[in-house]
C-alpha cells in the first residue's frame, strides 16, 4: 500500500503552495533586477544595437532564470513537506538479503 503524502492534507498543501508562490515572487523580483543589469551592461558595452538583441537577451535570461527557479522551488516543496518520503522503495527489501560486503548493486566508477 502506498503511504499517504503530507500534501494530501489540505492545510499542509496550502502552506506548501503559499511558500512556493512566495519563493517565485521573490525570484521574479531578482530576475527583473538581473535582466535590468544585463540590459544596462549590454548597452554600455555595445551601444545601441538592434532592439532584437535586447529583446532576445532579456527573454533568454528571464525565462531561463524563472524556469530554474520554478524547478528548484518544486524540489524544495517536495522535500520540505515530506512528499519525497511517501514512496515505496522496491529495492529496500533486497538490501536486507545482501550479505555484508556484497557490492553487486553498487555502481562502478
Q: Any descriptors?
A:
109 residues, mainly alpha
Structural overview:
68% of the residues lie in helices and 0% in strands. By secondary structure, the chain is mostly helical. The protein has a domain at 28-83. The two termini are 35 Å apart.
Write the layout of secondary structure elements.
Elements: H1 10-46, H2 51-81, H3 92-97
Helix pairs in contact: 1-2
User: What overall form do the CA principal axes indicate?
Assistant: elongated
Instruction: Determine the N-to-C terminus distance.
Output: 35 Å
Low-confidence stretches: none
How do the helices and strands follow one another from N- to C-terminus? Answer: HHH
Helical stretch tally:
3
Short description:
The protein is an all-alpha fold and 109 residues long. It contains three helices and no strands.
Amino acid at each position: 500500500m502506498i503511504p499517504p503524502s503530507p500534501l494530501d492534507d489540505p492545510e499542509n498543501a496550502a502552506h506548501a503552495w503559499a511558500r512556493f508562490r512566495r519563493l517565485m515572487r521573490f525570484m521574479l523580483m531578482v530576475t527583473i533586477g538581473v535582466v535590468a543589469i544585463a540590459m544596462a551592461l549590454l548597452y554600455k558595452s555595445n551601444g545601441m544595437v538592434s532592439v532584437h538583441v535586447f529583446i532576445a537577451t532579456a527573454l533568454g535570461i528571464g525565462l531561463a532564470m524563472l524556469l530554474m527557479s520554478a524547478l528548484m522551488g518544486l524540489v524544495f516543496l517536495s522535500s520540505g513537506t515530506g512528499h519525497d518520503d511517501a514512496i515505496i522503495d522496491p529495492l529496500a527489501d533486497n538490501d536486507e538479503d545482501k550479505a555484508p560486503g556484497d557490492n553487486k548493486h553498487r555502481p562502478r566508477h
